[in-house]
Amino acid sequence: MFVYTIRRLLQTIPVILGVTLVVFLMMHLIPGDPAQIMAGERADEAQVEQMRDRLGLNDPFYAQYTRFVVDAAQGDLGNSVRSGRAVSSEIGARFWVTVELAFYSTLLSIFIGLIAGIVSATKRNSFLDVFIMIFALFGLSMPNFWLGLMLIQYFALPFDWLPVSGWGTPEQLLLPVITLGTAGAAIIARMTRSSMLEVIHQDYIRTARAKGVKERYVIYKHALRNALIPVVTVVGLQFGVLLGGAVLTETVFAINGLGRFVVEAIAMRDFPIVQGSVLVLAMLFVFVNFLVDISYRVLNKRIELD
Length: 306
Description:
This protein has helices at 2-29, 34-39, 45-55, 61-73, 87-122, 127-141, 144-156, 170-199, 203-210, 215-252, 258-267, 271-299. 77% of the residues lie in helices and 0% in strands. It has a domain at 94-299: Orthogonal Bundle (MetI-like fold), CATH 1.10.3720. The protein is mainly alpha-helical. The chain is globular and about 85 Å long.
């Protein structure tokens, strides 16, 4: 297991380098001159050219990319155009808010999705099964920003039950987490149902039932554990989706997180902030999927580590 973990860590290195290359190319393809923005609208050509030299924008592409990777590996993501502060400190002040939002939303998605999927699979073709799948389809179809606005409109404003903005207290967590976690719960429910239906018709499940094992143990001990492999994969992918969805959710609920910060940076054409934020979120997504790969072996000992 240790060797496998080290091997998987080493395999993430090319992925990380690919991420840095894509992020670097993306920011170079966006229209606009960072030097012009940093020098100001009234700067003359000489001042802009001086700024380009200071930023290293006149260097060859490979030299710029190498410098970017080396600096990023040391935690230096440059300075914000707007504030002049280090990008790493600007991101650090908001990073954990977004991670916390995505984490709680993932927990909610797993909790609701697993229960709904198991019930739907064990009550196949019943009214409850149809109801859960219709609800899951509804959850998949709703844009999270629209759901957030509806929750504010019908639960926060008329009754003053919950705050409509901010982050930190349990009351402030509830609406954003529901908004962001609903679609994930729907996907996990559908995947859990599909995987459970495949597993509960296997021979070893029939054998367990023939031996008189209680149905509860058959479902939760034997069937669910083997059905979790594809579900865990979906959870890992959903975490990345939730990080992206946090952009709109944080904007709707005025949460001072990294997603909202990126939107503001794009509007202000603060390229270093956008580049650094995308890189950090992409690295987090790579790390989460590394943990998913490791969890496969934990859930099912029959999976070969090679």
